[in-house]
Amino acid sequence: MAFDSTNQVMTPGALLEQVLGSMEIPQAFAVVCSADQHVKIYILHWSARYMAQISRPPTQWDKHIFAMNGGVTGNFAVTIQFPEEPFKV
To answer: In the chain, which ranges are E strands?
Structure first.
């Protein structure tokens, strides 16, 4: 699925679905977080929705969106929960 590049107004939800459905275009998102008067900027990539598995019981992860933040702890890539409405401002 390619990104819709028309000049039409796109809702935040439609943009999110387009981002999650795109497997051809590399994507990265700059996320700014602030806590205790410190600001951190994270670069997130490989965002995807965790889908329920057929023949397995439901889990707390089903339908949530996750992304990698580029960090590695031991031999594991760091995965975070992506915001539910990342494009709503």
So the answer is: 28-35, 38-49, 65-73, 76-81
> pLDDT for 37-61, tens place per residue?
888 888 888 888 888 888 888 888 8
Determine contact, residues 84/20, Cβ cutoff 8 Å. Answer: no
DSSP reduced 3-state for 6: coil
The DSSP call for residue 37 is: T
At position 16, the amino acid (one-letter code) is L
Residue 36: HSE in the Cβ half-sphere, 13 Å Cα cutoff: 0
Nearest to 85 by CA among 65, 69, 67: 65
Provide the whole-model pTM.
0.64
